[in-house]
Structure formats: structure tokens, C-alpha cells
Amino acid sequence: MKSLCADLVLQRMSGTTDTTLNRKVYESLRAAILDGSLQPLSLLPASRDLARELGMSRNTVVNAYDQLQAEGYVHARVGSGTFVANITPESFLATGRNAIGMDDESASVRFSRRAQSLLANASAAPVQWGAFMPGVPDVTLFPRRQFSRILARLWRSPRPELLTYSHGGGHPALRSAIAEHLRVARSVRCDPDQILVTEGVHQAIDLSMRMLVDPRDTVWVEEPGYWGFHKVLQMGSAVIRPMHVEGDDTGWPHRSKPPRLIFVTPSHQYPLGSVMSLARRRELLDFARSAGSWIVEDDYDSEFRFSGRPIPAMQGLEPNAPVIYIGTFSKTLFPSLRVGYMVLPRALAGSFRTAHADLYREGHAFTHLALAELIEQGHYASHIRRMRVVYARRRALLVSLILRHLGPEYLDPQASNAGLHLVLRLPDGTDDVAISRAAEVRGVLTRPLSRYYVRTGGTRRGLLLGYACVSDERIEPAFLALKMCLTTPSPISG
Length: 494
Description:
Shape: globular
CATH class of the largest domain: Alpha Beta
CATH topology of the largest domain: Aspartate Aminotransferase, domain 2
Mean pLDDT: 87
Radius of gyration: 28 Å
Number of strands: 13
Number of domains: 4
Helix content: 40-55%
Structural class: alpha/beta
Distance between the termini: 63 Å
CATH architecture of the largest domain: 3-Layer(aba) Sandwich
Strand order of the largest sheet: 3-10-9-8-7-4-5-6
Strand content: 5-15%
């Protein structure tokens, strides 16, 4: 069987001009190195092996290798072989070339206005682990032994239907397990036919937008609210109307044009942490029914409530509520699992399943079945109970540090004792973006609260501090490093 390197050389040689054979081999390998087909530090085949695969003499390949080495494209190590150089000769010219050609090339690309806005205000952080990254659980405590045993058993004799495309909104076993869990833990009214398993919450938002919102339709979002909602809605050309979060309630926008969708986080408002009152929830349900709107209830981390009675989901307050309930395993297990779910009203369920299969080409059935068994065997519920204790302790540690070093005015009195993060309030006139950047230089990750607002006027200033993915012993050193960035708050820039 030919090596990939031999295939590359043969393909490129077919288009070269008449020249010597060793020159053709040299030019083909050099071009493959320059365009990245042969990666830096990758091992080239032995000259004898490559010559045999190409059907030519070994001297021909040796001469090509020698020329590449003389020019700095490869280097040879005795007893190890010939490797692609980490830095090619052309790399030394990269600065000049970028200054002249690359900027011109980028300038010629025309992105849509939606894409330009998205890129100019990108929010996804390149680093997703460490103090105090919000929204990230402690993935080191995931029950990997139990999960790996389930996976190993399933892999011993995998059924073909687990390894091909899926259809139907997720593996039936997982949809049944999710429905049972939600009925007990969150008082959600549902059966397995209403469950649609998605690849995370963002896909659930995107599908809801595509199915229910036309361009220029109105959509309501909480202010401040989850930036992921905002990004998906902007790419769908929706008209976004903010609902200002005030204490434990939410102020509705002007209702002259009813919204198609209303995005809320009633059980633990994101990012401020308040809880929507029962009266406000019923008012919103009544309004949605009368206006023909759909409420999208994001119940992203409600499993982690550390005091008081559990707060049931809005979806379960009344039969056939006009609510699309969405949740995720990213907060309870680990984010790269990429498994979320929707509980759809019966009138939407069938159509959403069909659209989901056509738009996203379902898969992950193998993972779905393993996750279903993890839930059914009780490991999932046991893991949540254990993590409640861990996260409650870490939250208490962080709160005590804030009270001791900064004072109670830095904590929002409306925030509930729940979730994976808290908001550190900052004085008016503080540049929370600059402080977040300064903290990152010190190795502390935060998110500025002002970035969670659709509109910039009247925004509160603060920092989101995630405590879930920080070990107990790391919380105080990280907080003290952050405190150094708070001693001289910067004025709001421009």
C-alpha cells in the first residue's frame, strides 16, 4: 500500500513540466511542504521505501531529499529519519508578504453584514478552563469510570444503527431517560415523543429561530442576557427587543408588535442570578397565549440550587404551555459532550424532528445510548448530588472572600444561592472590560457584565466569576490576584 507521501508526489508530478525525475520529486515535495500538506516536524518515508512506492531508483529520491535539506526544507537525524523543518525558508519573508499581500487578500473578502457584526463582537473565549471561567463545571469529577465501562461494553458488539446517521430526535433510550428525569427533578410535563436531543443549547436556539421566526420578526430577550442567544438571533436577522431584568422580575418591552419568541431564564436568570416570581411567570404565559408567541425557557443550570426549595420549571405550570423548554448536559457533566435537549409542545414536536434531521444530519447515537444508561443506572443523579455539595462549598468560599476584602456592596442582593457563577458588582464608572483583560494577564479568567447587554446605555458594571471549575485551594490565590486589578478602577473608555 502506498504511503500518503507517495500519493502526494505522484499527484503533483503529473502536472509538472518536462524536467529531470529527481527535480520533479523535489518540486512536488517542496510544494507539499509549503502548502501545509506535509506538516512541520512530520516524518518523511525512508528514501528506499518512497523510491519503491514511486517506482524509481533510490538515488533519484536521495538527490531530491538532499536538495530539500540543503535549502532548509527538511532536516535529517541519524537513526531517526528525515523530517519536515519546523520553519521553512519562506517563513522569514512572511512579515513583508503579509504586509503587502495578505491584507489585500483579506480586504477583498466580502462578508455579510450579519457576519461582520458577529466577528466584530465575538464573545466565545479561547480559554475555557480555570479560575474564574463562568459556566464551566468541574470536569475532573465526571464519573468517567462508570461511563467508560458502559462505553467499553457497548463497543464490544456495536449495533450498526448506532454507527450510522440517526433520525427521530435522539436515541429513544436517551429521550425516555431525559423525560423521566425532567418529570421528577424539574416538574416538566412531557413524554419521550416531545424530547428532541440537540448538539447543545445553541443548536436548539438556532432550530427554534429557523422554524418559527422570519427575517425582521420581533424577538424578546432578557437584558442583560446570555450572549449566545444574541449571536444566533442576530445571524437570523431578527429584531431584538430587550426585556430589562429588575430585581426578581422582568420588564416587558413595548407590546405594539407581538414577539414570535421570548427567551427567558426564569429559574436562575443569566447572568444576574435572580428568580422570576410566580406571578410574573403566569403573566408571561398568559401574554404568550394571547399574542401567539412562544416562550423559550432556558433551564441551563437549575440542578445546582444550594438552599431553599427547588424551583419548578415554567413549562410545567400549566398543561400545554406555549413553552419550548431547553436544557443541557454541558453544566452537569462536561461541555465537550455536546448534548442538549428540547421539550417541545406537541404541536411542534413532529415538525421540529423532521427539520432537525434534514438540517443537521443527526448522529451520536452511540453516545446517546451510553448517556441513557448512565442516567438509568443512577450515576447521573448521584453525580449531581455530589457536585451540589462541591459547588456550594466553593461558592461560599468565594462569597466570604468578597465580603472580607471588598464588602457586601460588591454582591447583588437579588442573586439566588445557585448555579456555577456569581456576579461581582463594580462601582459605576468602572471599565469592567479593561479589568477583565488585566485579570487575564494575571492568569484569572472573568467575563465583563457589560458585554451581556444588547444596548450599551445604562448597563451595570461587574464581572462574572465562575467558581465551579476552581479547586478549593485555588480560589483564594486567584481572587487575590483579581483584587489587585480592582484597586484603581479605570474610567469607562470612549
